[in-house]
Amino acid sequence: MKENIEDLEYRIAKFLRYGVILAGIVILSGWLTLFKFSNTFYTFKFYDKLPLIDIIPFHIYRGNWGILLAYLGLIILISLPLIRVVLTAVLFIKQKEYALATIAIIVSISLIFSMLLGIEL
Amino acid sequence: MLSLLLLVISISAGFLGSLLGLGGGIIVVPVLTLFFGIDIRYAVAASLISIIATSSGAAAGFLKDHLTNVRLAVLLELGTVGGAITGFLISSHINSSWLFLLFGGFLFFSAIMMFRKKGDARSEIDHPWSQKLKLAGSYPNEKGELTFYKVAQVPLGLISMYFAGILSALLGIGSGIFKVMAMDGAMKLPMKVSSATSNFMIGVTASASAGAYLMKGDIRPEIASPVALGIIVGSWIGAKVMTRMPAAHIRKIFVVVLMVISLQMMMRGLK
User: Fold this and answer.
1) ipTM summary value
2) Partner residue opposite B82 with nearest CB, options A30, A78, A110
3) How many domains does chain A have?
């Protein structure tokens, strides 16, 4: 019998749950390191436009590994839904459901496109 | 110490959110802006991160109960992701007073919607798109029997999802309320299926704009880390104790709280 798409998705979802835990641990380790020197939100009272491409080299140069680790955790978290949609597309292709597979692929591409939109804005 | 306080508040937000079926964002954004005095753009970006965490963390549970309609979710994600892209593009051109007003209005609306009756209106006809993509489905009810349902007004559902996506990206919320409304109101899906499918989709919607905000530099780990960690822990606790809590009473109290916060957000926008 052909396995139900929901059952296959369930396996992906279980995998994603581990992804959330992993991201949580990475964010936590970064945050604990960060916590020692950053204890105020005053700098965030006013919006300051500073792209990630400029933030990362600054922290590498300063050796702020806590912040970099926290960024890594956040990136893992943000990429989880994208991974899910890509895996869903693969599932649909395997089940020869080409219409839904195409839709899932379009969603994946739109997600990547959306993330890239943040650059240079 | 402020970071620790933010962690504690985020745990409560996650806890309340999962108990009441609201996203944590509805609590996190007002706390960050009104209480901590953080710029609303950083608050929105941090909140989106927590939405991804709750959605991805809870998906397995709903799928196990066979409540999520994965086929429909994939189709509707077209609408929400499109909306999220639009919302992100608008966000660069909108000033924060408008964001406060919009957020306040949304909160007020959500508070009223919490009083809504929950009845399932079934559709007798399956929309042609639904027939083509085999979107109709079934789920096991309390007695363990399968309840079958059809999917109506698919194009209207898609358009509603597009607007839900815009709001999600602008306000840092899952906009689950609109997603559920579109699914059980317009598309005539059973309430349980709407909730589960909405939860499944909000992570994808949020990641579209969260990724863009991350690149733009609006997601700052100093704020986003305690918020994300707090919401993960809080919603996990909420899901564990959900059946043992008097949710109906908490809901009534919370409606009042939401109204008060909503007015404060709007007043902040008018300043």
Assistant:
1) 0.90
2) A110
3) 1
